[in-house]
Amino acid sequence: MELAGTALYPENDSLGNHVSKDTYELVKKELGDAGVPLLLIDKQKPWFPCFDHHVTEIPAAGVDPSYGIDAYFLRKASAQRVSRNSRVLIFK
Fold first, then answer.
1. Do residues 28 and 36 lie in contact, with contact meaning Cβ atoms separated by under 8 Å?
2. What pLDDT is attached to residue 12?
3. Can you tell me the distance from the alpha carbon of 18 to that of 24, in angstroms, rounded to the nearest whole number?
4. pLDDT of the residue at 14
5. Do 48 and 24 share a domain, yes or no?
6. Is the domain of 51 the same as that of 7?
7. Domain count across the chain
8. What share of the chain is helix, strand, coil (3-state, %, to 5)?
């Protein structure tokens, strides 16, 4: 299944049904302060906006993605000539 397919609630569900009222109010406030309509994330499961924020905002803040945990393990795998398609990776 595609990532976006697992990230969205079904048609009759939304984020507000899965987080506390306080959390939902905070999300609405933060989105409003950022000029982002709640409608854009209301159908998304809580982890997806965080993932999206990680992908877009952290690099914009000057954080170098080459220091991320995924890049670290890809470098280790490359050094050991482990295929990226391997299901199990064992590192020494």
1. no
2. 92
3. 9
4. 93
5. yes
6. yes
7. 2
8. 60, 0, 40
